[in-house]
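Supplementary Note 2. Why include the ligand at all?

Several targets in our set were suspected to adopt different conformations when bound, so apo predictions alone were not considered sufficient. For every target with a known small-molecule partner we therefore ran a joint prediction. The input for calcium ion is given below.
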Amino acid sequence: MTIKFMSGALVLILAVLLAGCGAGEPTAGSDAGAAAPAKVYRWKMVMAWPKNFPGLGTGAERFAEHVATMSAGRLKIHIYGAGELVPPMEVFDAVSQGTAEMGHSAAYYWKGKVPASVFFTSVPFGMTTAETNAWLHYGGGLELWREAYAPFNIIPFAGGNTGVQMAGWFSKEINSLADLKGLKMRIPGLGGEVFQRVGGQPINIPGSELYISMETGVIDAVEWVGPYNDLAFGFQNLGKGQRTLRYYYPGWQEPTGTLELLVNKKAFESLPADLQAIVEVAARAANQDMMDEYIAYSARAYRDLLERYGVDIRPLPMDVLESLRQESAKVLEDIAASDELAGRIHASQQAFAAHTVPYQRITEEAYIEVRRALEKPLE
Ligand code: CA
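The joint prediction is reproduced in token form.
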């Protein structure tokens, strides 16, 4: 037994040694550089959210794992959650300056630096996730995004998507547009602009302070993402006190939620072509993968909110949505008129939607209408 075991162990050791020798030798068909030990690139990625945060953080982690595996360890990306290396609102600057080679964030956070950036995250009453991805990758969207960030030495990639969001949690019943007047709500980006125009008070509060702000009544309403993230935040527990919270849909303000993977231009250009391709393909995969994760886990969280926590989940009245839609169109036109690049992005999105939506009507939309009409009522 002992001899047999030892010989087995020796075989294993020999195998490891042989494998070790082989790794350093050029093999047939390899290029001239294969004989030298592969250069290992060590990058930092800073995020605008905590590490392992549902969807947003887990997606970035998987991106880094895929890059490490596909590059056989030649490109290692260490991920820093919000505040670990830089505060969440300094992710863009950190990547621009090269403090970190990569960032994971949302474009609309940078509207103070790049007014046109708001168009890349989501447009109220705009394109869906599938349409947005088609525009980005086959409709000139990504080129415009890269043009917007070029002055900052940043190359953006679409880096995840939340899908259509929820309209948010409201401490007050919304029956007409008048109910939004004076309402203090955390709602950033273009949605916040629209909300202000209909008489609301948009307040931008970091994610970490949202729960306490709702609990103490600093704000009356909050939109964050959707069931997957909102359940993790615990908003469902807020409705148990003196205020009854209602969870409204649909997320007119964010019919899609594109996230971004930012890469410092110099760092990207320093990579050999195969590692550049790995970053690009891993980003593309991360973009789709996060959407898949959101659809699967938001559905589960929605059930929990409904059945376990008894949350009152209901649609916004159609006439309220219609007013918000009209105001959205005006906000978009105003931003497009005030910034040359924003104008071109808006025009590009409008043109793309004009030829995509009619086709969606006879495919995705037609199928969903049929499914809804023919399915048995839910029991
Ligand atoms: Ca949101």
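The chain has two domains: 39-164+256-295, 168-253+312-374. The chain is about 50% helix and 15% strand. Comparable summaries for the other entries are listed in the accompanying table.
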